[in-house]
Amino acid sequence: MPPHVLRSGSRRRTAAVLVALLATVGVLAGCSRAEERGGAAASGETSPAAEVRLGYFPNITHAPALISVENGLFAEELGDTALTPQTFNAGPDQVAALLGGSIDVAFIGSGPAINAFSRSGGEAVRLVAGSTSAGAQLVTTPDITTPEQLKGKTIATPQLGNTQDVALKTWLKENNLPIGDGPDAVTVQNIENPRTLDLFKQGAVAGGWLPEPWSSRLVDAGASVFLDERTLWPDGEFPTTVIIVRTEFLQQHPETVEAILRAEQRAIEFIREQPEQARTVSNQAIQEITGNALSEPVLDRAFGELTFDTDPLAGTWPQLADDAVTAEIAESAADLTGFLDPTAINAVRAAAGEPAIDPAGLDAS
Questions:
Q1: What PANTHER family does the entry give (predicted)?
Q2: Per-residue pLDDT at 261 exceeds 50
Q3: What is the average pLDDT value for the chain, to the nearest integer?
Q4: What pLDDT was estimated at residue 365?
Q5: Using the 8-state DSSP alphabet, how is residue 357 labeled?
Q6: Predicted confidence band at 44 (pLDDT cuts at 50, 70, 90)?
Q7: Are 258 and 286 found together in one domain?
Q8: Phi and psi at residue 3, in whole multiples of 5°?
Q9: Which of 320, 162, 342, 158 is CA-nearest to residue 243?
């Protein structure tokens, strides 16, 4: 079996063990955290927010956010609450904005989401919903066909500590490929996605572990898919984009958070029922934000690599936390007990006729 597909089985075993451990920890620690949150919420009545500041990316992986803004779904569901959208290019910048209090809600990658929770001692943010699964690939020049051939090459990721940066470094370590400079190591450079495309065309980088639509854009520029991250996960599912909220905002304005999630659910239903129109709307939004629309081949390929659902795939998160340690982004795996608050998304899913999500021990109950 090729080295790059050995991990799927180990993920199943590791994830199962870690989920069980989290569940045990939840019994011991969940009560105190629940009491803290309950006490804060009980200190005053909740109400819709006057304003909600929302962060998201102008990327296809954030299509539910793009569509909800472009089609006015957020505005319809929020009613009198004003929406202030803000776009970002990478998750760590969103984390800084969340922890600094300049945004309230973020469509964000799993790695930065864990980082935000961990950096704040499990207090500042809560995971409230999923959004997008899959849509990340290691794409390289066609001459690279084995892991060993990556040695001496430069591979790009969007930003230090972002979701794809963690995934690449974890995979390199699991395949005994040193990270660094020189002919016997793989050089990992953190480069903004548009610049990665330019450098790939110039031959300055050999490829990148990238989210959509950037992996598709490199393929359109001549790259080959060396590894689809779906092959590393049971059932090919892993969270690419989720929604996290400042804990204080969630406590004070749960109605507003639920309104955001209702809009997201409507956007996802739009994607499922009217995929062509959804692609067009998403591309229009990207063009308005970045000044550049995606070509039809790139747009079609990128959408085909993604799955949209409000389930955050809680069972995968212990493995994601462990990966951050393997990638040397974190010193120890984050204790994710209490990270997930499923209240709002379960209400939205029930109204849409969908089953409640499996919290997999990440909630505080």
A1: ALIPHATIC SULFONATES-BINDING PROTEIN-RELATED, TAURINE-BINDING PERIPLASMIC PROTEIN
A2: yes
A3: 89
A4: 54
A5: P
A6: low
A7: yes
A8: -60, -30
A9: 342
Are 313 and 19 in contact, with CB atoms under 8 Å apart?
A: no
Among 220, 235, 250, residue at a domain's last position: 235
Determine the distance from the C-alpha atom of residue 194 to the mean position of all C-alpha atoms in its chain, rounded to a whole number.
19
Each residue's pLDDT tens digit, 75-109: 999 999 999 999 998 788 899 999 999 999 999 99
> In angstroms, what CA-CA distances link 148 with 144, 209, 295, 365?
9, 16, 33, 46
CB neighbour class for 192 (10 Å; exposed up to 12, middle 13-18, buried from 19): middle
Which three-class secondary structure state does DSSP give residue 338?
Answer: coil
The count of residues in the chain is 365
My answer on whether 11 and 129 are in the same domain is yes
Regarding whether 231 and 286 lie in a shared domain, the answer is no
Residue 223 to residue 227: CA distance in whole angstroms: 12
Average pLDDT over residues 58-79: 97
- State whether the Cα torsion 143-3-231-338 is positive or negative: negative
Q: Are residues 198 and 52 in the same domain?
A: no
Look at the chain and report how many structural domains it folds into.
Answer: 2
Helix axes 163-174, 110-119, angle to 10 degrees: 100
Q: Rounded to whole angstroms, how far apart are CA atoms 52 and 243?
A: 14
Residue 63's CATH number:
3.40.190.10
Q: Which residues contact 294 (CB under 8 A, 6 or more apart)?
A: 60, 213, 217, 283, 286, 302
Instruction: Tell me if 365 is assigned to some domain.
Output: no
d(Cα 46, Cα 214) in Å, to the nearest integer?
41
> Maximum CA pair distance of the chain?
62
Same domain, 226 and 322: no
The pLDDT confidence band at residue 346, using thresholds 50, 70 and 90, is very high
**207, 235, 263: which is the final residue of a domain?**
235
Domain of residue 7, residue span:
3-134+237-351
pLDDT score of 7: 45
Residue 362 maps to a domain: no
